Amino acid sequence: MEQFYTIQGEGFNTGRAAYFIRLGGCDVGCVWCDVKESWDADAHPRYAIADLVASASEHPGRNVVVTGGEPLMHDCLPLTKALQEAGFKTWIETSGAHPLSGNWDWICVSPKKFKAPLPEVLAHADELKIIVFNDSDFKWAEEHAALVPSTTRLYLQPEWSRAARMTPALIEYVKANPRWQVSLQTHKYLDIP
Ligand SMILES: C[S@@+](CC[C@H](N)C(=O)[O-])C[C@H]1O[C@@H](n2cnc3c(N)ncnc32)[C@H](O)[C@@H]1O
Ligand SMILES: Nc1nc2[nH]cc(C(=O)O)c2c(=O)[nH]1
Ligand code: SF4
Ligand SMILES: [Mg+2]
C-alpha cells in the first residue's frame, strides 16, 4: 500500500529508525482501526520485492517494519528473505489472525476481539501489544498474556481516540501490575508518519 522511512512509534522498538512497508488487505475489521484505507488490497498498487528492498536501501536505517493491513494475509517468506539477505532486520506488526509466514527478527502481536489470534502466532510473539479501548480490555489483556511465552514483553497501548479517557486507568494498571509496560503511539504526538 505504502512505504515510508520514519521512527518506530510503538512498543519495544519505539524511537528506532525503521523503513515501513504497509501491505494492503485486512479482514479483521477493528472498529477503531487507524488505517482503514488499507483493508481493500485491490485498491492499492503492487510492488516488486526487489524494488521494495531497493527503496529501503536508500536510507541508512537497517530495520524494516512490515505492517498493514494484516501482513500475514500474504506469504511473507519471499519479502523477509530478500530483506534479510540485503542486511535488514525484519520486524512485523500483526494481529495474529492468520498463519505465520516469513523469517522475523521481531514479532509484535496485537490481538483483536474482532478475529481471534492463532495460538501458533502467539507462541512466537516477542511482544504482545494490547490496545486498551475500555476497562474490560485489562482482563482481556491478561487472558492473552497467559497464551504467550514467559519471555514475551507485555505492552498496553491506549486506543487513540480514547487515549485521554483511558490513559489514567492504564497508568494505574501498570503501576499495580508492573510486568506490563505503557506503549504510546509516539509518532502521532510527534506528527510524523
Ligand atoms: C494498523 S495495525 C496493522 C498491523 C496489524 N493489522 C495489527 O493490527 O497488528 C498496526 C498497529 O496499530 C495498532 N492500532 C491500530 N489502530 C489503533 C488505534 N486507533 N489506536 C491505537 N493503536 C491502534 C494495532 O493494534 C497494531 O498494533
Ligand atoms: N511511526 C510509526 N510507527 C508505527 N508502529 C506501528 C505502526 C503501524 O501502523 O503498524 C506505525 C506507524 O504507522 N507509524
Ligand atoms: S487488524 Fe490491524 S489493520 Fe486490521 S483492522 Fe485491526 S488494526 Fe486495522
Ligand atoms: Mg499506524
UniProtKB/TrEMBL annotation:
Cofactor, free-text remark: Binds 1 [4Fe-4S] cluster. The cluster is coordinated with 3 cysteines and an exchangeable S-adenosyl-L-methionine. Binds 1 S-adenosyl-L-methionine per subunit.
Protein's pathway: Purine metabolism; 7-cyano-7-deazaguanine biosynthesis
Residues that, per the record, bind [4Fe-4S] cluster: C26, C30, C33
Domain (Radical SAM core) ranges: 13-193
GO molecular function, one term: carbon-nitrogen lyase activity
Keywords, sorted A to Z: 4Fe-4S, Iron, Iron-sulfur, Lyase, Magnesium, Metal-binding, Queuosine biosynthesis, S-adenosyl-L-methionine
Coiled coil recorded as keyword: no
GO terms, biological process: tRNA queuosine(34) biosynthetic process
Subunit field text: Homodimer.
UniProt family annotation: Belongs to the radical SAM superfamily. 7-carboxy-7-deazaguanine synthase family.
Described purpose of this protein according to its UniProt entry: Catalyzes the complex heterocyclic radical-mediated conversion of 6-carboxy-5,6,7,8-tetrahydropterin (CPH4) to 7-carboxy-7-deazaguanine (CDG), a step common to the biosynthetic pathways of all 7-deazapurine-containing compounds.
Protein name: 7-carboxy-7-deazaguanine synthase
Organism this protein belongs to: Hymenobacter setariae
Gene (name only): queE
